[in-house]
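Input record (one chain):
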Amino acid sequence: MLFERSDVNTPSGLRLRLNAESSPLKLDHTRPLVLTDENQQTWGLANRSEELLINSGGAIPPASAQYDAGCLNPIPDDGVTMQIMVPSSAGDLSFELEPGQVQTLHSLTAACAG
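The corresponding structure, as predicted from the sequence alone:
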């Protein structure tokens, strides 16, 4: 889920929230999410899972993680393949983003930058 941060006491910007659907899987709440494109450009999205404490009553949900999805620098190229690496209790999980998802990242970052 991609959304604008909801707490005025946290840094502004977009957030990417991921939820694990496999019950024993726990998402890492300390390491960044990493994006890599076919041009070997890499971006790290800061882990903002501590912001989940506001809604969870004091404990970060183990199956959820939240990342800063603000402006990526440089702006990802449109039309390239991109991998997302999510740190978890099972090691880094790797997923290939669909072209529409890469287009969304490109458009959001372009709008943010200019």
